[in-house]
Automatic annotation (TrEMBL):
Its EC number is 3.4.24.-. It comes from Lysobacter yangpyeongensis. Coiled coil: none annotated. This is Metalloprotease PmbA. The keyword Hydrolase applies. The keyword Amino-acid biosynthesis does not apply. The lineage of its organism: Bacteria, Pseudomonadati, Pseudomonadota, Gammaproteobacteria, Lysobacterales. Keywords: Hydrolase, Metalloprotease, Protease. Residues 245-453 form the Metalloprotease TldD/E C-terminal domain. Residues 40-104 form the Metalloprotease TldD/E N-terminal domain. It comes from the Bacteria. Residues 132-238 form the Metalloprotease TldD/E central domain. Belongs to the peptidase U62 family.
Length: 455
C-alpha cells in the first residue's frame, strides 16, 4: 500500500510537555477559585506542524508552525465568562483569569450554564494509538511532494497542468481540566499527502485529485500511488456530457457519501435542536431510514480519527448506536444543549467520535451493476442544504451509468431532494469505506432523486 517508513523521533518529550500543560491548568483553576468562581474549566494546547506545497516541479511554500493556546472559563453561579491567551508568562495567565472573572460578573444568568455533572466525568483515561510523530525534515517532505506530482504528471499524456502537490504533518497536545478535579490529557498526530492535476486544455480542462490522510505515516498511501490516482481521476472526467433532467437513482461515492451522514449529525445536534433550526426536531425514536440501516458511534477505535476517552467537557464517551433498525436512537448533545432540551448529555461536547455506517452491499462496481442505470456522484459543489426544512440542492459531477457500468462523465448538473425523503430512500451502503474521515461509510445508493441537467 505504501513505501513510507518513517523514522521515529530522536526524543519524544510529549509526556513532559503534557505534564507542564497540566500544571498550568491546575494553577489556573486555583486562581479561579481564589477569585470566587463557583466552577471553572481550563483548556491548554500545543500544536506543531510542517507543510510543503509544490507545483510543476518547483517548491512554492514551506511552512513550519508552532502554536499554543490557553482558554479559561469561569462560572459565578449561572453567569459565565471566558478569556484566552497564548502567553504563558505568569502575569499574562493571571490577567486571563481576571478577565474571565470580570466578564462573568457582568453577564446575565443562564440556567443551562455550568460544567457537566461531576458524576459523568471520565475515570478510565487511556490512549487509542493515535500518537505517531513523524521526524520528517523539510527536504524529505519536498521530495515526497515532488514525487507525488511527478508520478501524476507522468501517468497520462492528457495531464496538461497541475494545481500542485502537498505534504503535511502535525502533532497536537492538549489538556482539559475542571474544578470537579478532572484532568484529561490527549495527544495526537496527523499526516497527509495530496495532489491535484488538470487534464486537457482550454475550455476542455478538467481538474481532479486525490489525497491520503492518516494518524501514522506508515498508513499513508505511497506518494506515487496518490499521484497516479489523481491523474486517473482527472483524465476520466474529460469530454463530459449532461443528462436529461429527470428522476434517477443516485450513488454517492464514498468520499462524498459521508456528507449525507454529516447532514444527519448536524440536524440531530443540540444547538440546532434547541434553536428549532433543524428538520429533525422531536425525531428521536422515529424511523428515518430503512429497517436495515444502522450507525454506531465508536469512540474507542484503535487509530480512529476521533477516538477519545472523554469529550470536550471531560464526560466519559461510550459506544452507542445513533441509528439502529432505521430508527434514530438519540441526539448528539453536550451538557449545555442537553439542559436546554431537558435531556442528559450524550458525551458529544465537541462532536461525534468515529461513526460507522453499516454496509449491506459490496464494493462500488457491484453497487453500480445492481443499480443498472443512474448517476454516480463523485463531487459535490455549493452549500444548498437547508437544515431547517431539510431541502437539498447541490451542484454535482460524476459519471452516467448504463447497464451497470460507467458510460461517460457528467458535470454541470444539480441534484435535489429533501434529506428526510433521501434518508428513507437509501437502498444500499457499500463496503468500500473511505478511511479518511471519522465518518466511516461506503458509497450510498439513494433510490430516486431529481437530477437537473439538459432541459
Amino acid at each position: 500500500m505504501n513505501a513510507i517508513i518513517p523514522a521515529p523521533p530522536a526524543h519524544d518529550d510529549s509526556q513532559a510537555r503534557l505534564d507542564r500543560l497540566a500544571d498550568i491548568a491546575r494553577r489556573l483553576l486555583d486562581g479561579c477559585r481564589a477569585r470566587g468562581a463557583s466552577e471553572a474549566e481550563v483548556s491548554c494546547s500545543e500544536e506543531t506542524g510542517l507543510s510543503v506545497n509544490v507545483r510543476m516541479g518547483e517548491v512554492e511554500t514551506v511552512e513550519a508552525t508552532r502554536d499554543r493556546g490557553i482558554a479559561v472559563t469561569v462560572f459565578f453561579g449561572k453567569r459565565k465568562g471566558s478569556a484566552s491567551t497564548a502567553d504563558l508568562r505568569e502575569d499574562s495567565l493571571d490577567a486571563t483569569v481576571e478577565q474571565a472573572c470580570a466578564i462573568a460578573r457582568h453577564t446575565e444568568d443562564d440556567e443551562a450554564a455550568g460544567l457537566a455533572d461531576r458524576e459523568r466525568m471520565a475515570t478510565e483515561l487511556r490512549e487509542f494509538d493515535g500518537w505517531h510523530p513523524w521526524a520528517i525534515e523539510a527536504d524529505q517532505a519536498i521530495d515526497l511532494a515532488l514525487a507525488c506530482e511527478t508520478a501524476g504528471r507522468d501517468a497520462d499524456r492528457r495531464i496538461e497542468n497541475s494545481d500542485g502537490a502537498s505534504l503535511g504533518s502535525g502533532s497536537s497536545l492538549s489538556v482539559y481540566a475542571n474544578s470537579h478535579g478532572f484532568v484529561g490529557r490527549e495527544r495526537s498526530t496527523n499526516h497527509s499527502i495530496g495532489c491535484a492535476l488538470i487534464a486537457g486544455r482550454g475550455d476542455a480542462m478538467q481538474r481532479d485529485g486525490w489525497y491520503s490522510y492518516a494518524l501514522a505515516a506508515e498508513d499513508l498511501e505511497s506518494a506515487a500511488a496518490i499521484g497516479r490516482r489523481a491523474a486517473e481521476r482527472a483524465a476520466s472526467r474529460l469530454a463530459p456530457k449532461q443528462v436529461p433532467t429527470g428522476d434517477y437513482p443516485v450513488v454517492f461515492a464514498a468520499e462524498v457519501a459521508r456528507s449525507l451522514i454529516g447532514h444527519l449529525v448536524g440536524a440531530v445536534s443540540g444547538g440546532a435542536l434547541y434553536r428549532k433550526a433543524s428538520f429533525l426536531v422531536d425525531s428521536a425514536g422515529t424511523r428515518l431510514f430503512p429497517d436495515w440501516f444502522a450507525i454506531e458511534e465508536r469512540p474507542f477505535m484503535r487509530r480512529g480519527l476521533r477516538s477519545a476517552a472523554f469529550d470536550a467537557e471531560g464526560v466519559a464517551t461510550r459506544e452507542s448506536p445513533l441509528v439502529r433498525d432505521g430508527v434514530l436512537q438519540r441526539y448528539v448533545l453536550g451538557s449545555y444543549s442537553a439542559r436546554k432540551l431537558g435531556l442528559a448529555t450524550t458525551g458529544n461536547a465537541g462532536g461525534v467520535h468515529n461513526l460507522e455506517v453499516a454496509a449491506n452491499a459490496g464494493d462500488l462496481p457491484s453497487m453500480l451493476r445492481a443499480m443498472g442505470r443512474g448517476l454516480l456522484v463523485t463531487e459535490l459543489m455549493g452549500q444548498g442544504v437547508n437544515t431547517v426544512t431539510g431541502d437539498y440542492s447541490r451542484g454535482a459531477a460524476g459519471f452516467w451509468i448504463e447497464d451497470g457500468a460507467i458510460a461517460y462523465p457528467v458535470d454541470g448538473i444539480t441534484i435535489a431532494g429533501n434529506l428526510r425523503a433521501m434518508f428513507g430512500a437509501i437502498e444500499a451502503v457499500g463496503s468500500d469505506v473511505d478511511p479518511r474521515s471519522h465518518i466511516r461509510t461506503g458509497s450510498i445508493l439513494v433510490g430516486r432523486m431529481t437530477v437537473a441537467g439538459e432541459s
